[in-house]
Predict the 3D structure of the following.
Amino acid sequence: MNIRPILASLRKHRLPVFLLVLEIALACAVLCNAVSMIATRWSDLGVNSGIEEPGLSLVTVNGNDGDRAAADIPRNLAALHGIGGVRSAGMITGVPLSNSMWVTATGTTPFDSTDMRQKASSTAVYIAGRGALDTLGVRLVAGRLFRDEDYIGAGIRSDYQSQASVVLISQSFAQTLWPGQSALGKTIYSLGHTHYTVVGVLADLAAPSLSGLGPNTRYHTIVFPGAPNSEFDTYLIRSRPNEQARVMREAMATLQRLQPQAVISAKTYAKVRAGYFDDARNMIAMLVLVAAIMLAVTAVGIIGLSSFWVSQRRRQIGVRRALGARAIDILRYFQTENLLLSCGGIVLGMAAAYGINLWLTMHYDVPRMPWFYLPVGAIALALLGQLAVLGPALRASRVPPVVATRSV
Amino acid sequence: MFAYYLDLAMRSLRRHKILTGLMVLAIALGIGASMTTLTVMHVLSGDPLPGKSATLYYPQLDPRDSQDVRPGQEPPAQVSWMDGMNLLKAGRADRQALMTGGAVPIQPPDASIDPFFEDARFTTREFFAMFHVPFLYGHAWSREDDSNDARLVVLSRRINDKLFGGADSTGKMLRTGGKEFRIVGVIDDWRPTPHFYDLMTGGYADSEGVYLPLLTATDLKFPTNGSRDCWGNGANIDAKTALCTWLQFWVELDTPAKAAAYKQFLLNYSRHQKSLGVYQREPNVRLRNVMQWLDHNHVVPSDVHLQFWLAMGFLVVCLVNTVGLMLAKFLRRAGELGVRRALGASRRSLFAQLLVEAGAVGLVGGLGGLLLSLLGLWVVRMQPSDYAALAHLDLSMLLATFALAIGATMVAGLLPAWRACLVPPALQLKSQ
């Protein structure tokens, strides 16, 4: 199809052309950025926590008498084991995706506060009591889990450093610390000079907060063994998923009986994880809604302007038909015209999308948009344009040649 | 004339129902989305204590050791026990209060209520007067009670309702953390938004249910909430040292002159501490008022900012589309406009007529947008974030909705109206 006459006619209608191009450009710019934001959040939703989630329940006990922890905790755990359906139980200082995090700085060499920035990285810490790792369902990649003797004397110092001598580490964090080497038997330094021996590597165990430690640190986690202590406040209980509700109810009643002063609450791990992603899910819903409505509005705008355009040119169309143009030629004419306008809008829109993304990355915690979003957004807008113009173009193609002979 | 234009506008709008409907819908969607996010922004970035916040200041000192000093470094966000106590005792401001967040187990007098944990504020007495906390019953504890380990407590209305059915509970005893406390006051509903006096416990946290004298609570070793920064071997010893910052200190300074004098006092204090060998760094102080402090901490969540920008982008898309639709509508009526021109109407009056029509579309679109933003805010309130419950439309935002809707539509109508007025009347009349 010859585009020369189309361009000539577009030059005569600068204002509608300008508006159409602007509509498509804006929609393209906003769409690319909205989709990019959706994708970032969407990929977080499916993050692997590194634990066996179904069947895991958490019972939190507040108001413990810290001095009696060493006696109370083994007694309480024994009582929990006595509940029918409980497969295992243990205590821990936190769980993945719960937002409440213990943090330390770790490195492969000793460091102090002057060279901490270069030599150490922020690391999420879990202190797991006897039975906690089995209950969590972590997966060992190399080495071993804790032995009974690892828990003995493994208290917590007042600066929140573990008094244990061994540590487990997540696989990707181990790869960051010792690229290409086995982490087993290596020494890791925490808060400067306290050091521990790595005895096992875990399949990635997520931190309580995915972004709390900085970018790409979601698996910067280490696990210490812990003797019963006052910092333990969460009982982990594993049961069959369909028995969780009953087990949690009985566990709460059992613990309340043993510690009448304590404030006790329970929830399933599934609920903890869902709670962590509440904000992200809401944001996704809003972004999807806005993007969808925006596309609809843009389509409506294109339809409105195109139909106006068609009705303005009824006579011109009639003349072309009378001179021998087929209906399909008229249809193609309007489709090509829309494609040309879309192309103009898309080029502008991609530039704007890139600019907006750049501005957002500078001011907010927004990642750079992957380059392929731009062509995908462009194709989406071009298709939308074609779809929107179809109705008016079909109507144009049905204009009978006889119109040319009327009036004037 | 206006009434006539309005009549013409209504006729024309009724004639093209679909086109009009689409324009109204586009405006309503754009306004609805942008007003929802704008309202959330407005609520979240509001002044927690209007009329008072400009006189409340948050002093920051730098007691850290000389490790890792960088020029222009921000001092710690909180103060240490030693500095807080020194500043409190110096009493150089009109009012001052030292505080930290905490949590206390409450054993209700009524055995039918299970024990529960409640967020508490451990503070000194001027907290209440300084932050304009309204009392329902009783009053704050006295100045002496700040320093004599008094077992006194002030409750929030919510807790008083829960434990005492809303009755005047002053003088009664409350058992918390295994100790008996005498209730001296009950405060009325009070929720400054943001939770400016302690951002560490959540920027939009609800205000606490229980208020205890700071010294009493810390002596009883009640657990504190919030963040604690230590250096050297600070973490190894008691928290009441110079080596950990974990308390918030607020002062009231009625005039800018007093604020300047107080800043000078903080500098002198830092210098003095350095000469004593307690501080190792050069004096490094900040004195921000409430709004500056909120601004500095970027307290409005960045997702809220992103939603706002997205909604603004969406509004622009809607408006550009409205411009397009309006252009189509106005130009279609070139014949009618040509007749009016031929009968003597000036371009100016034609222009006015078309703008009235645009304004009418804006008004209806604004109404639709208002309904949509009420719906949007209702959805926001359903969300679990701690600020969700605050998302309500106030009168100023209501008026802003209509101003924005009508203003935006009139601006959108300018270009099409101008273009339509340029149509030469003779040509139109001829081709009819």
